Amino acid sequence: MRRNVLVSLKVLTGLPLTEHDFSMIAITSEPEAASAPTPFDPLRADQHSDDDLDQLPFGVICLDAAGKVLRYNLAEARFARLDRATVLGKSFFGRVAPCTSRPEFEGRFQNFVKPGNTAPTDRWPFVFDFKFGAQQVEIELARGSRPSRFYLLVNRRKFLPIRGEPFRPAPSQEDLAPGESKLGVARDAGQQRTVQISPAFFASMRATWDKVAPKGWPLFCGEWGHRWGRNAVVDLETEALEKLERTLRELSMKTVITMVAEYLSRQGWGQLSADFSRAKQGSFVLTLQRSALAESVGFSETPRCHLFSGFFRAVFCHLANKLLAVREMSCISQGHERCTFVVTSVERRWTRRLSDAARPLAPGGEDDRRALLRRLPLESASDRSGDGRGRLP
Questions:
Q1: Are residues 7 and 64 in the same domain?
Q2: Apex CA 153: angle with CA 126 and CA 195, to 5°?
Q3: Nearest Cα to 273, choosing from 284, 259, 257, 262?
Q4: Which of 19, 68, 168, 252 is 20 to 30 A distant from 321 in Cα terms?
Q5: CA-CA-CA-CA torsion for 41, 83, 134, 144, nearest 10 degrees?
Q6: Is the pLDDT at 18 greater than 80, yes or no?
Q7: Could you tell me the pTM of the whole model?
Q8: How much is the pLDDT for 312?
Q9: Domain range holding 63?
Q10: Residue 62 bridge partners (DSSP)
């Protein structure tokens, strides 16, 4: 058990971890109920919420029989560089995607929605044209469970240069909402709306939680971060496909970490780095320097970056295609130089003494270690390993 204490101390103080250290780590992080991902069934799309559709890495568009846009998920908004709020309620064939107003697309749709046609689905290849380039896609058209609702599933296959005449490109966000910048609307490179928030916003949020629900911050921020991370996966998958024509899982881990680090850095959250030297043993360490969240909330006796714990859990669960757990071990809000997170599989379990060992201490080098050891129970005979690895130096 003392060995577990040393592992926690190493993480807290930034010392390198050995292979045996990683074998001793077991963490739980309030992940969602363990369940294997199930394939998306387009015929059951009406049973999914907008939030569910936003987690999908491919485009989903719901139209009525006249072609009016009823639902439009996050991935499609990213790939088309359009704002969902601007698209909803507009004619898909006439206003949103006029390049589809052709017999091989709109014609097939009109035939599909005719009374008497009971085919559940239809498929065909197509090329979307945008002002920034063309996209080779695979279309699947499916009937919704509700009357007069039809779903287009759009899988991107290849990104092509601008094709020009006679192909009619889809309008840009500026075309659909001209002059919106004068109304205080800011957008990122993907034409998604952004809002600039100062650290005072997070400081006031944390203070409110501490007053209204003192124990609610970790749960709230962890869930918020997890949902944010799932949406970020869509952003990152879009970027990977557009720039590298690969999915995230097809890229090297070094490339993916660089993309995630740049994603956070562009938004001003801090600088991310990772140590995957022990990944084969099932654990790795993430370090976030200058965390905007940790620096905004002031001093705390406990780690405060639960938002990032949830974010990292969502991103790396997606990459690993299995459930993982994330635990923040040290935080800038506690006085440490950086925020450190340990990631491992949920099959492992965080022992109670290791959890106790991870409780925050005011940083102070060796004095921290002595204070931590003083509050732990004495080593029992069962804690000792025969080779001496369980003993303190």
A1: no
A2: 105
A3: 257
A4: 19
A5: 20
A6: no
A7: 0.75
A8: 96
A9: 42-174
A10: 71, 151
Averaged pLDDT, 83-100: 95
Residue 172 has pLDDT above 90, yes or no: yes
Residue 145 lies in a domain: yes
348 CB contacts (<8 Å, ≥6 apart)?
Answer: 25, 26, 27, 28, 282, 325
Q: What is the DSSP string of 307-371?
A: HHHHHHHHHHHHHHTS-EEEEEEE-GGGT-SSEEEEEEETTS---HHHHHHTS-----THHHHHH
Tokens 């390049």 locate to: 99
Closest CA to 75 of 161, 150, 137: 137
Residue for token digits 């989903």?
A: 60
Instruction: Give how far the C-alpha of residue 393 lies from the chain's centroid of Cα atoms, to the nearest Å.
Output: 41
**b (16+ CB within 10 A) / e for 345-373:** ebebebeebbeebbebbeeeeeebbeebe
pLDDT for position 27: 36
CA atoms within 13 A on the CB side of 123: 4
Domain count, the chain: 2
Q: For the residues of 44-90, what is the DSSP string, one character each?
A: GGGGS-HHHHHT-SSEEEEE-TT-BEEEE-HHHHHHHT--HHHHTTS
Instruction: Clarify whether residues 66 and 140 are in a common domain.
Output: yes
| Three-state DSSP class for residue 22 | helix
CATH of the domain at 358: 3.30.1380.20
Burial class (CB in 10 A: 0-12, 13-18, 19+), 214: exposed
Pairing of strands 186-187, 150-160: unpaired
For residue range 280-314, list pLDDT tens digits in order. 777 899 999 999 999 998 888 889 899 999 999 99
